[in-house]
Amino acid sequence: MLSSLRSRLWLSYAFLIVTALSVVTIVLFISLFRNPLLYRQTTERLNAVQTVLIERSQEPNAPPVSVLVKRSRQTFGVRILLFSQNQQLLFDTSSTEMGLPFPPRRAVLQSLPTVRDEAGRVWLYSIGQLSDGTYLMVADQRPRFTLVNAFSDEFLPVILLSGGIALLLSLIVAFVFAGWIANPLQKVVNAAAEMPSAATKVLEVGGPHEVQELTRAFNSMVTRVQSSQRSQREFVANVSHELKTPLTSIQGFAQAILDGTADTEEARGRAAQVIFNESGRMHRMVLDLLDLARLDTGTADLAMSPVNVRALLNAVAEKFSPQSQRAGVNIHVEVREDVPPLIADGDRLAQVFTNLVDNALKFTPSGGVISLSAAVNDLAQMRITVSDTGAGIPEEEQARIFQRFYQVDPARQGGTSHGAGLGLAIAHEIIVAHGGRISVRSRVGAGTEMEVLLPLSPPEPSKKARKK
Fold this sequence. Notes:
Blueprint: H1 5-34, H2 37-57, H3 65-76, E1 79-83, E2 89-92, E3 114-116, E4 122-129, E5 135-141, H4 147-194, H5 209-259, H6 265-297, E6 305-307, H7 309-319, H8 321-327, E7 330-335, E8 342-344, H9 346-363, E9 369-376, E10 381-388, H10 395-398, H11 423-433, E11 437-443, E12 447-455
Parallel strand pairs: 7-9
Antiparallel strand pairs: 1-2, 1-5, 3-4, 4-5, 6-8, 9-10, 10-12, 11-12
Helix pairs in contact: 1-4, 2-3, 4-5, 5-6, 6-11, 7-9, 9-11
């Protein structure tokens, strides 16, 4: 039981509560010991006698003070003294007792008025001034006080009642607080023990602020881990699918050559050409995967240098001039001459925009237009867009087009780069490696615009935090 966090928290709270109550008990006991009930009762009685005597002495036709003092002595059994204005003793009802001096000024921390007689015995007193300027002091010897009496008569009942109730309520509150803190933590522990199970669910946020932050961080971790697991499963499935088709073709045509099915020179040439084409397709896909792996781990070397964006986009447009003429699509570049150079890897950016223009050509019908533009926005970023007048991308598909092996066209399980669906994923990683962002805006039947935002002077790729 003591190994659980809840029990340890509860015992910690209980220890603190018992310690606090013990300190309060000790302080209370010291206070009662210095000023017990018996002393307080005696002092109150002396104050009452003194008040009565002073009031009686001020009544009309009151008897002399000496007579009142003697009566009070007999009635209340106290010692009464009368001092002059200059604090000299005038009268004492106890002539057989040791003399009492005029009491000195009470100390600040002195709880009871006390004075010592000539024998050193302690007297409790109450003193007041009469109308004629003399001082009337009522005194009584301090009664005997024992520790046992204080503990049994006034201390024990108070502690047993109030202390017991306080301890019980405190332990209940401590138990509730321990559960409030420990229960969410225990849920996190239990869920963490199940990781990386796909059945692990996000936890309900509760408890103190720090525990809530821990729970939110754990939920975020669960979401990321499960998303990563799904991506890995999809990645393996897609790679297997993409490799299956060329491998099947290679195996089939190689078998045809081996078993003599391709019995003519022409048939063997066609088989060899298919094997060559499919192996080239596999080679390109492997290179793309290696490219993605290097970009993922941040080990891809970016040769950063000033890049003339206008010249870069013109070169990309010129590269696709033959294809665009055959497709009947016009490629238009709009970049002002005063656009500043961009610090980037020119070859990698050319790879990005080549892929974007290639995709635009695939989905833009004859008579359409592809536009490339670049300008600096208000945030000191280079904004480069590639827009087309093609069929557009459905809204529900736009969030997934940068995923690996994903293609908008549902008729194929492939993509937009070399038939493997890696082109836009690589483009995304290259832009992220430059500290930028790539996004898509599209409407079905109205065309698509790919927007790339790049800082004019990005941080070193090895030092920047990669975005997910």
